[in-house]
Design a protein that fits this description.
Blueprint: H1 11-24, H2 33-51, H3 66-90, H4 94-108
Amino acid sequence: MTGRGDQSVSLDLLKQKMANFAKERDWDQFHSPRNLLLALVGEVGELSEIFQWKGEVPKGLPDWKEEEKVHLGEELSDVLLYLVRLSDICGIDLGKAALRKVELNAIKYPASSNTNHGIAHTS
């Protein structure tokens, strides 16, 4: 496994690595949008389990053990990787779509309106 240090990782790099990973294993045949979505939902469930009985958790997870943070990183990564793969299979540029959504949310939830507590409820 190669560490990237402090280098940022692009969605395009992840997309390419996921495509290569699937091709090398002949998994493209299984990577339909439906199958990837269901796998993504399963990973979100695993991510949810980590927080299920912890109550509110402060930013930075100061009371968490290192192995809990490592596990969280793995589950977050699973969600991200399936999301990147799903967007690729669907022909969606996830980076551009996300930037567009941030712009739409800025219009929908202007900064002068401070009633949403920092959580954009998007639809």
